Amino acid sequence: MLEKGALLFKFEQPTGRSADHVNWFRQMEALGFLVTTSGCIFPYDNFSSSSKGRPKGHKLSAHIFLGKPPVFGRDVNGWPVATQVSHRCHRKSCINPSHLVYEPQWKNLKRNYCGENLKCDCGVTPPCLSTYHNDVWVYSDQYVTYDTTDFKKVVSSFIPGQRFAILSRLHYNSVDTKKKLRNARIKKSSTDKKNAAMLKSSVRPENKS
After folding, report:
1. pLDDT tens figures, 131-140
2. Residue 18 · residue 64 · CB < 8 Å
3. pLDDT tens for each residue of 143-198
């Protein structure tokens, strides 16, 4: 992900979330996120689908930052009310919590009819952040990377209300180096103790006449 321009985040997560969701989110976070100039945040491709009980990336983000999914009551028109995580940006892999909202299925479906006049006109609240485009649409936005001027300030404007740090691009190299040095010290200490014990056992006291 780093070679694609990903940023390494460390989000401050709300309390009261399930351990599984937190662990899954941390795994996704550790791989880095691609951030676009339109504010969308994309995880590693593997998190675009669910896997062995783990939800998709955007559902993980919703669980962490939006909380427990609400239950919507029956609609007077009989429209489907199953709880879904809607993308206000219409980009289904985006995990930016400010782009996500829990809402009944009929609202999520209605968002697909947004943008006939190149602006949000679907009538759903909160409004869409962009007009609907299908999966083959080619977007023109760019990635915000470590080389982008004031990249931390730029990214902060995309995720209002969330506390996070953007780690150095060499963060994990640094962590690995520290681990290697620590393991080398432990190994050396253990070897020194063994050598000292062997030396002590090899020294015999002189026989007294």
Report:
1. 998 888 888 9
2. no
3. 999 999 999 999 999 999 999 999 998 887 744 455 555 555 666 677 767 777 77
Tokens matching residue 31 = 């791989």
Owner of token pair 């689908």: 49
Q: pLDDT for 8-24, tens place per residue? A: 999 998 999 999 999 99
Task: With residue 29 as reference, give the H or E element that holds it.
Answer: helix 19-30
d(CA 76, CA 26): 41
Question: pTM to 2 decimals?
Answer: 0.80
Q: What's the rounded Cα separation, in Å, for the pair 123 and 100?
A: 17
Reported as type and span, the H/E element at residue 104 is strand 100-104
* Nearest-angstrom CA–CA distance, 109 and 86: 9
CA distances from 169 to 4, 133, 153, 172 (A): 12, 32, 17, 8
Sequence-separated (6 or more) residues with CB below 8 Å from residue 97: 61, 62, 64, 65, 66, 159, 162
* pLDDT tens, position by position, 22-31: 999 999 999 9
**115 backbone φψ class: left, alpha, beta (φ>0; ψ -120 to 50):** left
